[in-house]
Amino acid sequence: YHRFGIKLQLLHVIQNTKLSEMHDHNEFETLTMDEYVNLVADCLEIIPNGVVIHRMTGDGDKRTLVAPLWSGNKKCVLNALNKAIKAR
């Protein structure tokens, strides 16, 4: 059991929040899946060996998720991460 480590988490926009209101007004953009996968792969290259990675993505409640919708398919995201890491 590893108590210490790092969790990588993408931003989820959830319904009925200030963030969803800002998203509706195009005040910011969420990452595409490719952008997120590449960012995580970049992070993994610089995280020292021996640091436990507890999480590489997350999945918001699909019933209230506004964006990014691709994050609702966690298996697809993890497969893309695995492919990107192997390609490096």
Notes on the protein architecture:
The chain has 88 residues and is an alpha+beta fold. It has 3 helices and 4 strands. The chain has a two-stranded parallel sheet with strand order 1-3. Strands 2-4 form a two-stranded antiparallel ribbon.
Query: Order of strands in the sheet with the most strands?
Result: 1-3
Average residue pLDDT: 93
Largest sheet: number of strands, sense, barrel closure: 2 strands, parallel
The percent range for helix content is 25-40%
Distance between the termini: 29 Å
As a percent range, the share of strand residues is 5-15%
- Low-confidence parts: none
Assign the structural class, choosing from mainly alpha, mainly beta, alpha/beta, alpha+beta, or little secondary structure: alpha+beta
Order of helices and strands: EEHHEEH
Figure out the total of helices: 3
Shape: globular
What is the number of strand segments?
4
Overall radius of gyration: 14 Å
